[in-house]
Structure prediction request, 471 residues.
Amino acid sequence: MHESCGVFGIYAPGVDVARITFFGLYALQHRGQESAGIATSDGKKIYLHTSMGLVSQAFTEEQLAQLHGHIAIGHTRYSTTGSSRACNAQPILVEGNSGTMGLAHNGNIVNSKFLMEELTQQGFSFSTTTDSEIIANLIISSTERNHVDKIRYAMRRLKGAYSLVILTKDKLVAVRDPMGVRPLCLGTIDGGWVVASESCALGHVGAQFIREIEPGEIVVINKNGVRSFTEESTRKALCIFEYIYFARPDSVIQGKLLYSARQAMGKILAREHPVEADLVMGVPDSATAAGIGYSVASGIPYCEGLIKNRYVGRTFIEPDQRLRDLGVKLKFNPLAETIRGKRLIVVDDSIVRGTTTPKVVAMLRKAGAKEVHLRICSPPIRHPCFFGVDMATRWELIAAQKTIPEIRDAIGADSLGYISIDGLIESVGLPKDIFCLACFTGDYPVEVQLEMDKLALEAIPSGSLSELGGS
Ligand code: SF4
Prediction:
């Protein structure tokens, strides 16, 4: 399962903003590994470099040196929507009547087809297959006179998830959709300002975290400082999977350190699904903290039973089944000496299609595990995501097709226990009504229900949601 993108922005006169953006993106690499890009402005001109590949592969010293100025935005992308092509790398630049604008986007727009048709009729053409270009064109299509009002116009038309960083010649703008599906935070650096998808990126570049950008908020940063504008937010829908899996464990979202939330998930799993065993392990790296939590709460010793090859990317480079099959072998190696003859509790973050988990269970058994009891930090995923998570169609989700005992048998575990929705909320320690839980409940945020019904009908027979356009 992949999240779509990471975004970063900086306004800091006298600072090498391209280099700082590079390291900001480097810290956000886990949010997307297919392409990376940086756009900068020196007040007169906008400069851009994008490339396929990891952040470390996408830039050379010479290319960074060409990105002049004191304002920058950056993006690291996983192509959940829009195909994996160089032209879809971000930031993108568009020309409007108030000049050139750069934009980078994390999320997914659910009414993008409708908006694209409308913009095409108005004479706009599209050079990418991402919905980020639709957002950018929607902003510049507005007849409003200033950028904030143009963005407000677009926000009233857009439905879905979008955390944006926008660059013009003289300002940096950060925007979070009124539901606040994807995170976005604000910090300071050397008398300037930074925005990033996750707080971990601020720490890496020596910036200080100030606060999160609120759902529906537009933050404008220019030579006059920071100004904030707000669009109404009627329904909040922060993606709970940021806590389970996507965001880095050293990030803080809504005041909660993710590492602590994941440990709490493990503790609650131990309470909800106890079992006699010799050792507890977490599937590295996303379930390590939860595995430790399970061990602490149950008193069963923690061990490292699988060693992860950290140089194969976060999950799988290409989202096709053949490479997924290969990927699990490249990714883990079991520690046979540790697990041989042992009854294992294995904590993992989620089960999506149920294609990877049986291989992990089989690998542990082959290495000598006597029993494998699987504990999962997410409730069963029964509904697809329409907000930028490359999950699967409903037909591919194992929990949409099978009961829990059937899933246990299909993955070859001795027992299987999922955290409850209430247990998950308790572990995060925030009110339930601020979250999107749609992939467990099918209760999508109200504002986008009609669009999602329509997309669901289109998506189910055809396969991947990744063909629907977006970022
Ligand atoms: S449907 Fe699931 S993965 Fe998608 S935004 Fe909602 S909680 Fe996150």
